[in-house]
Amino acid sequence: APDPASLEAVRDYPSVRGTPAAPPDGKYAGGTLRGIRVLGAYLGDDEWRKTELVARVERALKPLEGILKLRDTKEIHTSQQVMQVLLRFCSNTTLTFFLRAMPPSVTLPAAERHDELIDTALYKLVGGARVGAAGTCWERARKQARLPVKMGGMGLTSAVDIHEPAWIGTWALVAGPMRHLHAPFRDLDVSKAPGADFDELRAAHDRLKKEHGEITATWKEWDGKTKAEYFDLVGGTTGRPPEIEVEPWDEPDEGEKLRYDVSYSGARVRGANLS
Known about the structure:
Blueprint lengths: L3 H8 L23 E4 L2 E4 L1 H15 L3 H4 L11 H12 L5 H6 L2 H22 L10 H10 L13 H23 L14 H40 L24 E2 L6 E2 L2 E2 L2
Antiparallel strand pairs: 1-2, 3-4, 4-5
Helix pairs in contact: 2-6, 4-6, 6-8, 8-9
């Protein structure tokens, strides 16, 4: 840590940017800074951090204007695929680091702006004007595009949807190493630690657990209604064969045990002949 004596010496040196008496310099208005960037993340006054992060989102997604101008040539006919790949894997991931490194209350305005710009680009990319942005058709299409590919979506994960889980995930990963590597954090317990930041973390975690429970219950309800119908459709059997193990959809390796390949001998699920 810096020597407090040296900090006091700097404080009285008016030419150092960020000190109370520092003069204006270009965009710097002089005096104490409202915030700084540390390892890429914004630290400081909450309103300043929100404003800076929203501006950063707009700068990062500015290239979308050029991406949407890509067109096929006589020899190359993949402009639509290229635009979708760039939208999903490049543009839509530009905010993820900040969602993990900054509290949800600070990142929410930037996440909303990010999703707005991605939605606008998607609308132009897939010809949304054919149905209109105000109708229910586009709203359903937009929501479907936000789903994972394995659920029939385009994998354009919403920044608003993950802005709290991303922050929770960061703490889940770093709390242990922090306690191990830095003595002042040896007794840190995020479930009991005082302070507004930890209060926000716990509240977000409670909401995530509640949402997970609701989703799990919904999947089980849907599975109970549709699994038997599915096996009737693919195998001509009545109900689900007792020897077939099908995982709940909410488990980490969702549906990995449900496999079938079509062959002359019929559909097979984990080696069981359903023909």
